[in-house]
Amino acid sequence: xxxxxxxxxxxxxxxxxxxxxxxxxxxxxxxxxxxxxxxxxxxxxxxxxxxxxxxxxxxxxxxxxxxxxxxxxxxxxxxxxxxxxxxxxxxxxxxxxxxxxxxxxxx
Length: 107
Hints:
Elements: E1 2-7, E2 10-19, E3 32-40, H1 49-63, E4 68-71, H2 78-86
Parallel strand pairs: 3-4
Antiparallel strand pairs: 1-2, 2-3
């Protein structure tokens, strides 16, 4: 699902969320969703846009019985980390990456 925040006709915030569909059966995991993108225009930060957007995302997911929300944030993005911690989110893992660069071929 997607959600946009508008101010005077301009998009000032955006969230993209994916829901886990699970495998069903008795061993199904706790229903969860992942916030893939959560962006607020830099000149709109500190005015409640992010709070309104995350509140809408959470209410929407809660209404379809999603029990957990995950997201990733860049390791140096301390402002975002503070924002999400203040909203009740907690760090639960560390993500690792290996970059093969542009020399990686598909063949």
